[in-house]
Amino acid sequence: MARRKKIYEGKGKILYEGPEPGTIVQYFKDDATAFNAQKKDVIDGKGVLNNRLSEFFMTGLNNIGVPTHFIRRLNMREQLVRSCEIIPLEIIVRNYAAGSLSTRLGIEEGTPLPRPIVEYCYKDDKLGDPLVTEEHIAAFGWASQQDMDDILSLSLRVNDFLSGVMMAVGIRLVDFKIECGRVYDGDFQRLVVADEISPDSCRLWDIETGQKLDKDVFRRDLGNLTDAYTEVARRLGVLPKNTMQMPKPTLIN
Ligand code: 5GP
């Protein structure tokens, strides 16, 4: 059997060369990291849940005309995506104060923000993904003005979509992070939502109880991470039928 080519291994995912040119296989690991990988663990079933949840969100976005890199899910842990040139920015959209915004500005967690706030971090693990301004982005050429206009419009559309989907199942979308990539169609270049959208990259709080259903459960030792992600998947109706019986999922192919 031919061995496939690994392109990149990150903290939560591995990327392999895809079956056709311009495609990539994205494999979701069970590894959980926080605080720039200072805290690490392996959480059984996390990769399977994130693969399903990211498929759910990306498919929904594709269906409403927000372009993403997602093509199709291949099996329990893998999805086929379009290869794209990742813009080296983490785009964070916040609806309520939490996390680093609360720490930085002294605003109590859970305070509603007067409007969605979009922030940019430069993607560099060695530097701890520092917050940057559009001045830095333009000066260092990480993205063009056209890219930034498209990124802002994409992020706000993702925010509207995700907020609505989560609200419908009793979950508050506090904030989230996305990444964007450039794809080329002939002579034309456009931006797509890339990477993943999952409880690893969002803050999700139960509307009634305020219970955290996202990676803060791991970051802050608040309980069982798989239970939290399973609850999100269950409410959205995307729970793989046999997740509970298979604590250590195996690859289908
Ligand atoms: P904060 O800046 O408050 O730590 O994070 C804001 C939002 O972006 C949270 O939903 C958090 O999960 C997400 N986020 C920030 N940095 C990263 C990152 O490096 N990886 C992932 N998966 N999510 C991130």
From TrEMBL:
GO terms for molecular function: ATP binding; phosphoribosylaminoimidazolesuccinocarboxamide synthase activity. The keyword ATP-binding applies. Residues 6-235 form the SAICAR synthetase/ADE2 N-terminal domain. The keyword Cytoplasm does not apply. Its EC number is 6.3.2.6. Keywords: ATP-binding, Ligase, Nucleotide-binding, Purine biosynthesis. Pathway: Purine metabolism; IMP biosynthesis via de novo pathway; 5-amino-1-(5-phospho-D-ribosyl)imidazole-4-carboxamide from 5-amino-1-(5-phospho-D-ribosyl)imidazole-4-carboxylate: step 1/2. PROSITE patterns: SAICAR_SYNTHETASE_1 (PS01057). GO terms for biological process: 'de novo' IMP biosynthetic process; cobalamin biosynthetic process. It holds the Pfam family SAICAR_synt. Transmembrane segments: none annotated. GO terms for cellular component: cytosol. It catalyses: 5-amino-1-(5-phospho-D-ribosyl)imidazole-4-carboxylate + L-aspartate + ATP = (2S)-2-[5-amino-1-(5-phospho-beta-D-ribosyl)imidazole-4-carboxamido]succinate + ADP + phosphate + 2 H(+). Belongs to the SAICAR synthetase family. This is Phosphoribosylaminoimidazole-succinocarboxamide synthase. It comes from Puniceibacterium antarcticum. The lineage of its organism: Bacteria, Pseudomonadati, Pseudomonadota, Alphaproteobacteria, Rhodobacterales. The gene is purC.
